[in-house]
Here is the input.
Amino acid sequence: MNRMKWLSLGIVLCSAIVGISRADEALEKDAQDPNQWVLPLGSYSGIRHSKLSQITTKNADKLHVAWTMSTGTLRGQEGQPLVVGNMMYFESSYPNFVYAINLDNVGQIVWKFAPEQDKFSPSVACCDLVNKGVAYADGKILVTTLDTHVYALDAKTGKVVWSAQNGDPQQGQTMTMAPLIVHDKVIVGISGGEYGVRGYLSAFDLKSGKLVWRANNVGPDADILFDPVKTLDGATGQPVGKDSSLKTWNQDEWKLGGGTTWGWYTYDPQLNLVYYGSGNPGTWNPSQRAGDNKWSTALIARNPDTGMAAWSYQMTPHDAWDYDGINESVLTDSVVDGQTIPTLTHFDRNGFSYLLDRRNGKLLRAHKFDSTTNWAKEIDLKTGRPVLNPDKMTKEDVNVKDICPAAQGAKNHQPASYDPKTKLFYVGTNHICMDYQAFSVKYRGGFPYVGATLSMFPADHGNIRGRLIAFDSVTGQTKWAVNEMFQVYSGPLTTDAGVLFYGTLDGWFKAADQATGKTLYQFKAPSGIIGNPMTYMHKGKQYIAVLTGVGGWAAIGLAEGLTKGTEGLGAVGLTTSLSDYTNLGGTLVVFSLD
Amino acid sequence: MNRMKWLSLGIVLCSAIVGISRADEALEKDAQDPNQWVLPLGSYSGIRHSKLSQITTKNADKLHVAWTMSTGTLRGQEGQPLVVGNMMYFESSYPNFVYAINLDNVGQIVWKFAPEQDKFSPSVACCDLVNKGVAYADGKILVTTLDTHVYALDAKTGKVVWSAQNGDPQQGQTMTMAPLIVHDKVIVGISGGEYGVRGYLSAFDLKSGKLVWRANNVGPDADILFDPVKTLDGATGQPVGKDSSLKTWNQDEWKLGGGTTWGWYTYDPQLNLVYYGSGNPGTWNPSQRAGDNKWSTALIARNPDTGMAAWSYQMTPHDAWDYDGINESVLTDSVVDGQTIPTLTHFDRNGFSYLLDRRNGKLLRAHKFDSTTNWAKEIDLKTGRPVLNPDKMTKEDVNVKDICPAAQGAKNHQPASYDPKTKLFYVGTNHICMDYQAFSVKYRGGFPYVGATLSMFPADHGNIRGRLIAFDSVTGQTKWAVNEMFQVYSGPLTTDAGVLFYGTLDGWFKAADQATGKTLYQFKAPSGIIGNPMTYMHKGKQYIAVLTGVGGWAAIGLAEGLTKGTEGLGAVGLTTSLSDYTNLGGTLVVFSLD
Here is the structure.
């Protein structure tokens, strides 16, 4: 190699390093600025708390709609906008339009991205055609689409910088999650747990879109990027050992093993670990898959640069209830037995909150956050395993009744909020139970691989299906709970002024007092809310923005146009009355004081 | 007949008469109550003016969004809600959902009607899948659907009382207009002028849904319900004579004669006459249809009980520009030559405002309300006919350039408002011109029978496509004009406090000072506005409600998902930049002061 070649290579390497450093640091710095909202969850820690305090418990009743914008789509809006500097970016439900708005002139759309999509993908999306939003880094907007594409768009122009394909809709794979950018990696997952998809996390290079690593959650060690010696099992505190996943499946069932990755991801820069949860094991019929089915329904910590797993903790070994473990891990400090330690709090579909030492996955506390939870009596802190209630174990061809929570979970993907001042979590929860009958199912690519019929109903057989709670994940105490008619499927936002924001499935956007849960202000939004309010400051004024647009699994009957009289059908029956209160339709609604 | 039979018949007749009287009188009475909005245009006279005055020029800047509701549909929302007592009713674009809301509890939908529709109908709707709203009478909500059904719903329950079919989508017939109820008749029309449909007005019995009469606008006297002796021609002041329509067509072309009836209808209880306009003649290629093509592009007054025409006045004989005459007739008193007489004011697509004596159709005044109008120099008051500009006459295979206004009209269907205090009309207008090339076309049922290609553009070749004007239909003077970037396709509402409300195609809802047109308040709505604001009072508070949701012919490119690069296509090219400002999506938005 001649000198010029070396020199030019040196320049490239150098600028690449500088570039990486800038993107990463800029994002971390911007994430500290309460005027902006640069990460899908607002921060790497996922606390969904803002330091803004212009809207207070005293003036929240003076809130008003500042401006609005239709998403141009009817299906459920699960995400939230980003605000980067003067610009707002958001993504609609399928067909996944992405919009850029200059906050100085909200009457105009700076650019719109309308991806060409594989028309097959809507037919294999289990639970509405949703999307959890875009990510930003280094002048790019990162987008996932239902047909498993990842796009990097120029944030200024909306032009495609690169695109990559992360899956195959023909095999039941889809994408609905928001990417997480760490260093120079775009981290995304895959959906399709109901189609026998074997889940994975992928990291694409931020600059080029090239796949850097991919880690499955079930399968051989080489696939799952688990080191038998170095990767720890949070339940035992021991190394996972060889074939930690393989040996928990009968024969080749792991190949259809589920453990998808459609939830939220968080990141600890100090430990350099990304945290996420894996979904239910493949087929909902537990009789077809003896064993723990590791590492489905587990929390996993990985090095973002290499994908190698530092530790894993399985919440629901041999999940027999579709207790998909994808819910977010919120990273905070907690005082446990007098010691302040870096923890991870995870509200699982299975009805338990988990408090782990996020350095090693060690289970510190586990509490029922919905008291009706009955599939397990408790989580044994010594073994890290649930103490099962044999009456509620499902099996092929038996209709097991009154299991709590239902498959939709005591909480689904709607992200929780944590206020560092009160040290409490504010969680949108479900309050629902189910009957569950497993049946034998054969795999065929691109066809449902479910293997169970369900019927869900309100836990108290009344008209309460959800609750907003303020919860202490160390003590397990519920400070307060507010009942809602439907599942609370919108992720709360807390703020330094003690005002909390969330939405309801029947279309009320609410500001509540964090101290009591009492509603301070409410507004009847165009549609039910499964999106997550965020906040930003523009020209000295605090705004709260939320995507309204009912849908998702919570409102799948409405989303799919299934009408009354279909009460028996899984999650559909739970919310047939929802059509008495709201309507499909995606709209961004932005609030402020006058 | 025995005595009992006579007696029972007597009772039936009696109650029928009482019933008729009640429905009719109640509606007239309710229409006088400014707290309600019981007729699509607010009143039989169509003035779209409210006596409410809580929102003033002083406090209008304090307006806020009170509540919202998605229509559940994406296509253009052309209508407006009704308010009857405590209830609000409105209809969405296709698939024509109808909603009932109790104003005491706007969080809940009292009932929703979702008609089963002929799936073929969307493919033959020329100009988006719109609807102009429901009507009310006698405890029933009257609904038209795109697939040409008329439904009478129980206003309390939404249950179908009766349904009737008024056309055949397979032949290109659709329905988008709001019904008008007069006495015991439900008066509706038909769309499909671009499919060779021969237009008619139908009257269904309010109680039973039976067709009582149907009057074509072109064809034999027996079809058009014109009396050669009694029916007057407004242009000449003379009886129309025998075969007044037939003799103005070559051969059988009248059978495909157009003259559809998709606009607004008004009614004068004193004269007992219903007023409406007829659409363009069949095929836009004038060379295929020599003659005046009567009674297309005409205003017609009919007896609502019998359908018989009292008079007719043709605005655009031998229409060679698609100057469809369906725009509304606003019924007021006017001082003409010192005499106060009952008049009808009609702002036509062809760029002229027409002032007629509504007793006999006599033309009193005609003025250009858009000064660029150049297809005719003037309307000769003596002959009642336009003085044509031969340069702008279109003919087969000639591309005639720079015709003003464009086919979309100097004003389209968006209804005007009239303030009895100022005696001015407030009109949303278009400011657009076109090139027009006719071509030969053969009829085939259910296929377009258009016969012209068009290209529309802003009249001044700039960025102004619409204007809101305050206009005197007697003097022809424009008191003021406010420019808008796009066609003003929302019907203004005036109020006794001198505040005017309208919406823009790019999504701004505006309150303006009627004295100047100056904006007092504006709000960025979820989507562009082609609906018509209405107002009502509930529990002492004045509300303004508007259906937002861009579409219609004005925004057909956006509605049909046609993207940039299609600038050549008729009306599409006119508004390709609209996607830089707004998005599809139907939402009811309701405003009030705090």
About this structure: The first strand of chain A starts at residue 49 and ends at 50. The radius of gyration of chain A is 22 Å. Helices of chain A lie at 3-32, 221-224, 556-559. The interface with chain B takes residues 64-65, 67-74, 97, 99, 106-109, 112, 114, 506-508, 523-527, 549, 563, 579-587, 589 of chain A (CB under 8 Å).
